[in-house]
UniProtKB/TrEMBL annotation:
Keyword 4Fe-4S: no
Record domain Solute-binding protein family 3/N-terminal: where: 37-257
Parts of the chain that traverse the membrane: none
Organism field: Rhodoplanes tepidamans
Protein name: Transporter substrate-binding domain-containing protein
Stored Gene3D superfamilies: Periplasmic binding protein-like II (3.40.190.10)
UniProt cross-references to SMART domains, sorted A to Z: PBPb (SM00062)
Keyword Signal: yes
Length: 263
């Protein structure tokens, strides 16, 4: 059995440990403001969210959002290129302060990092040339639609397309977009990122968003426990949503509105 003195000492040490741990967990915002620089992980191979422009500099929706965060924090932005495999490890090992890289939120990721409010949509949809009249799914009747076999878009299209829709399935996204670009189909069902690649390679094609299949918003990734930094980022996102900045960025890069982004 522990003596009364031992219990008192143990409780005292525990009490001392609490503020130390709390202070340690809240260093990111202080570090950013002290360095006057925020390091943000961004994509550079995923148009229209992040890609290398003609001037060999990163550009895209995520790049603009990263710049917005830096401006409203009053610090410089250091863009750090990331890919899907390393973006969360970079955040966990403090190689970046934030991730702005088409990051979706799910239960597994929420166990190891924190998320801001959503800042942009990421979606699968139906796309076609501007001259192709499509207002509702009923307008797909009789039209040829390219889709990757077994992809999420294939499954969702099967649920909403009229029976007379002529669905042409290809083995992967590259073959699907190539078929549409060459005129083999009138319509394509794919993700906005694939359309970004297509539009980048074929700027004169005149492709536009027609119908939504599924929305999957993007969130800023923040190291676990960095509540002060998360609060700042959330305030920036809410202000940008209120003043129309997020809507303008969505229209600029995705050719559709931001929609009702979740908190």
């Amino acid at each position: 059995m522990l003596s009364k003195r031992s219990v008192i000492v143990a409780l005292g040490l525990a009490a001392l440990a609490i503020p130390f741990g709390g202070a340690h967990a809240q260093t990111a915002l202080d570090d950013v403001l002290k360095a006057k620089t925020v390091r943000i992980g961004v994509p550079t191979d995923y148009p229209p969210y992040g890609f290398v422009g003609p001037d060999l500099k990163p550009m895209g929706l995520d790049i603009d959002v990263a710049g917005l965060i830096g401006t409203r924090l009053g610090v410089k932005v250091e863009l750090v290129p990331v890919v899907s495999a390393n973006r969360i490890p970079y955040l966990q090992t403090r190689k970046v302060d934030l991730i702005v890289s088409t990051l979706g939120r799910n239960e597994e990721r929420a166990k190891i990092i924190d998320f801001s409010h959503a800042y942009a949509p990421f979606y699968q949809g139906v796309f076609a040339l501007k001259t192709t009249e499509i207002k509702t799914f009923a307008d797909l009747a009789g039209k040829t639609v390219a889709v990757a076999r077994g992809a999420m878009e294939d499954e969702m299209l099967a649920q909403v397309a009229p029976p007379t829709t002529i669905v042409k399935r290809f083995e992967d996204q590259a073959a699907t977009t190539a078929a549409f670009a060459s005129g083999q189909t009138q319509v394509i069902a794919t993700s906005v990122s694939n359309i970004g690649v297509l539009s980048q390679k074929n700027p004169g094609l005149g492709v536009e968003y027609k119908l939504l299949l599924r929305d999957s918003p993007c969130f800023v990734g923040i190291a676990k426990g960095e509540d002060a930094l998360r609060g700042k980022v959330n305030a920036i996102i809410l202000a940008a949503k209120a003043d129309g900045t997020l809507e303008k960025l969505s229209q600029k890069w995705l050719k559709r509105g931001a929609g009702d982004l979740p908190l």
